[in-house]
Design goal:
By secondary structure, this protein is an alpha+beta fold. The N and C termini lie far apart (about 45 Å). The chain folds into 2 domains: about 15-160, 60s Ribosomal Protein L30, Chain: A (2-Layer Sandwich), CATH 3.30.1330.90; about 175-200 and about 200-455, 2-methylcitrate dehydratase PrpD, CATH 1.10.4100. The protein has helices at about 5-10, 15-35, 50-55, 60-70, 80-90, 105-110, 155-160, 175-185, 190-200, 205-225, 240-250, 265-280, 295-305, 315-330, 335-340, 345-360, 365-375, 395-415, 425-435, 450-455; strands at about 10-15, 45-50, 95, 105, 110-115, 125-130, 135-145, 150-155, 285. The protein is globular and about 70 Å long.
């Protein structure tokens, strides 16, 4: 199954790729299926299950579902228009979308948080229904949000791997070992393999412009986060800190009083800026998820702003390398916090960032694989226990630490020759097994860990 760099890095909205973007995408798919059906619907209903129910309000899943049913999609979301439509639906209790008649929808009655057992396919499940004039269900579909904004129907999940209908790629790899072997056989870099595969599906102009847009959105998100202050929404009263920390770091420059470890604060502040924007519902790029959206851009920004010899022209190489690692992780394990805990989100992001940084700093394919392994290995077992279901605590700071680990992992890998004891493939499998063994309360339900041991009101 080929995963494009643009599957891993998707432009969307906060605060969660699986809980906000995923349900919005699922609703869009449901509308498309309903338009193509022979039914004449008069109303809509939605039920959220598992993690989508337990942390749905904190992740804005209810709002995202309604907006998706109203025709909005993450990549083109207009926040102001969205608020206007939400307000109208709450008053009129009607949804109007192109290609369908007016549809009854009362948010207080027709969107249900089901706190019973999760649906069998995945922790993030939702059921969307269309009803007739009498209120009877005439069309129904079950969707699973499997992390990073990826959506599958129950039938697709049961069938296994979704069929890849695109053109064949010249260098298909699903494991890190296959990737390294192909690099050795061809003399190409990891980014070179990934670029060749992408070019089998699109032209070079589309690829390069797409990579530029991804970085532009990432970088703009950092800049917005560094310029904003105030309190994040949701009720935890978490203050934005990126702006004040950044201003302090700028003021300290050139004073010869700064300790060497202050460079860690620069890495953290870039990541925190992104995740504060994400928590506020701003535009972000999944990398590979929204909850882990700060790690990759922060690592790139650190490299560009603080590492001698860094050049913007190599950002595409960074992103291609990172996406190669992210694709392997997703194929063999998971990038969903609801399925694998935060090791699957920030851990995967840190591995991707470490690989990308190692590559643009001259690392060999073996060193790139080693960098990714080091970063992921030292996130194994990390739980996902967001307080009050919000992507704020511990998520914002955790991205900063994920960036620091990524930089350290890349540096350690570059100090060696690429040989090491634990292969990346073994670490990914360990992460999968650990996620499967992890208690549900530690997997994005806010039923354990920090979420129950820290007052959230």
């Amino acid at each position: 199954m080929f995963l494009s760099v643009f599957d891993l890095f998707k432009v969307g909205i906060g605060p969660s790729s699986s809980h906000t973007m995923g349900p919005m995408v699922a609703a869009a798919r449901f509308l498309a299926a309903l338009r193509a059906s022979p039914f004449q619907p008069a109303g809509l209903k939605a039920r959220l299950h598992g993690s989508l129910a337990f942390t749905g309000v904190g992740h804005a899943t209810d709002r995202a579902t309604i907006l998706g049913l109203a025709g909005f999609e993450p990549a083109t979301f207009d926040a102001q228009r969205g608020e206007e439509v939400l307000a109208d639906i709450k008053v009129r209790k009607v949804i109007e979308v192109d290609g369908l008649p007016k549809l009854r929808f009362d948010p207080s009655a027709d969107l249900v948080f089901d706190y019973g057992p999760a649906l069998p396919g995945h922790a993030n499940g939702m059921v969307l229904e269309a009803t007739d004039a009498q209120g009877d269900v005439i069309f129904q579909e079950t969707y699973y949000s499997i992390g990073g904004g990826f959506i599958v129907t129950a039938a697709e999940l049961e069938a296994g791997e979704v069929e890849d209908e695109g053109a064949p790629v010249p260098y298909p790899f699903t494991t890190a070992q296959e990737m390294i072997d192909m690099c050795a056989e061809t003399g190409m870099s990891v980014a070179g393999l990934k670029r060749a595969n992408e070019l089998a599906r699109m032209g070079p102009l589309a690829l390069d412009s797409g990579l530029k847009r991804v970085w532009d959105v990432m970088n703009n998100c950092i800049d917005r986060g560094l310029a904003q202050d105030g309190t994040l929404p949701g009720g935890l009263n978490v203050r934005r800190r990126a702006k004040s920390i950044h201003e302090a770091l700028l003021a300290e420059r050139g004073m010869n009083l700064t300790a060497p470890h202050t460079i860690n604060d620069w890495m953290s502040v870039y990541a925190m800026a992104v995740n504060e924007e994400n928590a506020a519902g701003g535009q972000v790029v999944t990398a590979p998820t929204n909850g882990a959206a700060g790690v990759v851009p922060a690592t790139i920004r650190y490299w560009l702003d603080h590492v001698p010899g860094a050049v913007p022209s190599k950002v595409g190489e960074f992103l291609l390398t990172a996406s190669a690692i992210g694709g392997i992780v997703k194929y063999n394990a998971t990038i969903s916090g609801a399925e694998g805990g935060c090791q699957a989100e920030v851990g995967s992001a840190s591995a991707m960032a470490a690989a990308g940084l190692c590559a643009v700093m001259g690392g060999t394919p073996e060193q790139v694989e080693n960098a990714a392994e080091i970063a992921l290995e030292h996130h194994l077992g990390m739980t996902c226990d967001p307080i009050k279901g919000l992507v704020q605590v511990p998520c914002i700071e955790r991205n900063g630490l994920g960036c620091i680990k990524a930089v350290s992992a890349a540096s350690l890998a570059l100090r060696g020759d690429g040989s090491h004891v634990v292969p990346l493939d073994a670490t990914i499998e360990t992460m999968r097994q650990t996620g499967a063994d992890m208690h549900t309360k530690y997997k994005e339900t806010s039923l354990g860990g920090l979420a129950v041991n820290v007052p959230n009101c």
